[in-house]
Amino acid sequence: MSMERLVVIGGDAAGMSAASQARRLKGPGELEIVAFERGGFTSYSACGIPYWVGGAVPDRDALIARTPEEHRARGIGLRLRTEVTRIDVAGRRVRARDLDAGTESWTSYDKLVIATGARPVRPEMPGADAAGVHGVQTLGDGQELIETLARARGRRAVVVGAGYIGVEMAEALIDRGFEVTVVNRGSEPMSTLDPDMGRLVHRAMEGLGITMVNDAEVTGVRTGDDGRVRAVVTEAAEYPADVVVLGIGVRPETSLAEAAGLPLGAHGGLLTDLAMRVRGHTDIWAGGDCVEVLDLVSGQERHVPLGTHANKHGQVIGTNAGGGYATFPGVVGTAVSKVCDLEIARTGLREKDARRVGLRFETVTIESTSRAGYYPGSSPMTVKMLAERRTGRLLGVQIVGREGAGKRVDIAAVALTAGMTVEQMTALDLGYAPPFSPVWDPVLVAARKAAAKVREAG
Amino acid sequence: MSMERLVVIGGDAAGMSAASQARRLKGPGELEIVAFERGGFTSYSACGIPYWVGGAVPDRDALIARTPEEHRARGIGLRLRTEVTRIDVAGRRVRARDLDAGTESWTSYDKLVIATGARPVRPEMPGADAAGVHGVQTLGDGQELIETLARARGRRAVVVGAGYIGVEMAEALIDRGFEVTVVNRGSEPMSTLDPDMGRLVHRAMEGLGITMVNDAEVTGVRTGDDGRVRAVVTEAAEYPADVVVLGIGVRPETSLAEAAGLPLGAHGGLLTDLAMRVRGHTDIWAGGDCVEVLDLVSGQERHVPLGTHANKHGQVIGTNAGGGYATFPGVVGTAVSKVCDLEIARTGLREKDARRVGLRFETVTIESTSRAGYYPGSSPMTVKMLAERRTGRLLGVQIVGREGAGKRVDIAAVALTAGMTVEQMTALDLGYAPPFSPVWDPVLVAARKAAAKVREAG
Fold this sequence. Notes:
The structure is a homodimer.
Chain A: E1 4-9, H1 13-25, E2 31-36, H2 49-54, H3 68-73, E3 77-79, E4 82-88, E5 93-98, E6 104-108, E7 111-114, E8 118-120, E9 133-134, H4 139-151, E10 156-160, H5 164-175, E11 179-183, H6 195-207, E12 211-213, E13 218-223, E14 229-234, E15 238-240, E16 243-246, E17 250-252, H7 255-259, E18 284-286, E19 293-294, E20 301-302, H8 307-321, E21 335-339, E22 342-348, H9 351-356, E23 361-369, E24 380-388, E25 394-401, H10 409-417, H11 422-425, H12 442-457
Parallel strand pairs in A: 1-2, 1-7, 2-3, 7-18, 9-16, 10-11, 10-16, 11-12
Antiparallel strand pairs in A: 4-5, 5-6, 8-17, 13-14, 14-15, 19-20, 21-22, 22-25, 23-24, 24-25
Helix pairs in contact in A: 1-8
């Protein structure tokens, strides 16, 4: 009897976590593991790229959690710069091209993990591929951007997009000494927040010297005679730019899966069951940025490309592929980011999410502080909370503040997971001491007010 | 028909929160409110006293959340420096002494709130009342200590007790330029942690230049000819001291309640129902440091003197006394404190607590970091987790680290409240970005390891 072979497509967080976990459960004498990665790196923190570009992280290698050599030393047959070009589900094999040699060949599998990640949304506009216009998804992107910044002819940077990548890149470019303009198609930055909370981010970014342009659709990029970018063009205006960073989100990279007839959801991501198996397929798993995940609050699938989920997916897939049992129950939609000293966090549903799934709700927004008001370093914090009418169930929390604001959202993330009501939350026994919190934690203040509003609404 | 009268005994967090909340629900034309306070202040943050003594908080008034005048302006009949000396339950009246005039009189009540707080444990030893020996429970204590520090003849301070007040006072005295010795009867500081975690605090305190003396029972205080303290004496040694701070805990101040025949628990605190009514009494409520509270994890009563609970109790009592409905379901035992840049947090049960209530459990201790390892300012963090055998239910978490360690305990506090298993916790959707957390939050790392250990134990 020949040894079983596990094939992994994609050598980043989800894929290599799956490979590593399967290897922990089954040794090289029991299971062969082959992983294909079209790039030259494995297991790196894409989330760390803005901090490398900004200079807070000194070098690229710091972002690599585990090198190809380390994976190989653990008995994982890793093929770098090798791109899978086809999945033959019926034949249980994948076709892969060695990008350097230019050769293609088939590799059969008993078990398959699809971890093809996401691809950045590239605006369909003239000049989007001009020199000086950069994405920031891969280590290669980061390296190219750093080189552009070093030799830029001026100090004007335009960031297209004001989601978390956009605001993090705004910070990075400020840290590099650039004048930064952020061009955003939405009405406020951070569309993962409600616009009233996004407005707080908007004001804070202006306070940091960032020029924030909202409601602006980019129509093109103007280049000079040398082919390099000169300006970002919108319907209303033109924004001079020596460098342009695109931070307008990503889509699941599922072209291979789609061609193989695997099931995709409304957001273009692979659909899996709770064990991260591709629906309808016993021996194919998928995880990371190429899948859709269940939103436990709305009950619907979402695409949430975050490294923390990709790592969990990999862990679950590797456990199952290695003969164990694990599940990924879903997400509640927690995200945290910062722009300079401004911390931005959210979990659960925004107002429009709640409406879309038919929920009626009450909202409250409160101002509090990160520490006891009298304690040095106490800073203001705004907490918005959504609770369902009648049941009082917590639906979502958004927080904007300074130090200590961001990770407070975890309180709400756990409460959402547990299905708590805001009334139940008012009694939560949270850590209190003057350097850490007011005597009523800001999340409790919001919960009290939300509970009162739910009661009044009846 | 005469107006109903609510009498409140104790003008600090629980008492005045209750009075204020009752006043919100019932105006001065509906309910008379009389509050007796034997001291000269109301509604102050006792938890802030170490930071005032240490100089981080500039003045006493910053610690006062609401002054007597503010309470009176809201229609609360506040009698300062008036000590209740007897509760006549059958006669529905209290006897109070005006401490300045020396007169006593009866005041009848329809509803009574007992918020008499706690009294510091004073060691029964020679010299405990000597000049230069200070408690730190009241604003008056803090003022006296500050005056002693200003005129101290030397720079040697001894803190007796290594609980959270002890370690906070050690920090305050360091900030004031004193050489600090902490004398502790336990085997490690912070007996609210398991000793293995207390040892981390021990080492960190030594790193801060604090001399830590464990397993040392104080037998007395040696004074000079001037009656001022010269040294703290233990069985084994003598520790020279120009000032001594007692931080050896508090007991419920329930002498009045006991004399009135009200029910007390094993820890000497008043016993209440979930609406904070004294058991067996319809119109008497009690809250704050003078009551015992239900520990939701062990199912037993505990004495947990913390301002955050006192405020919640007051809110619940005031709502009920004002004709509304609210409950305080209990605590999970969350506490957070710091000594200089060391953050110390705990929630739920320690090993000995779990054993005492008959639980079998697994423990894990993991090392992780506050942020992504490559992100500047990332600092080490140790997380200990206890989970019940077989069920895998989370029982407790202890965290020792630097910035970002303390409030992470809230994740566990909510999970405990919800009765989550450590296996469920492994899937928690916590906020992740490199400046805020590693891709696996330290609490998740501990949960994964605990879940594995529970499974292995079977």
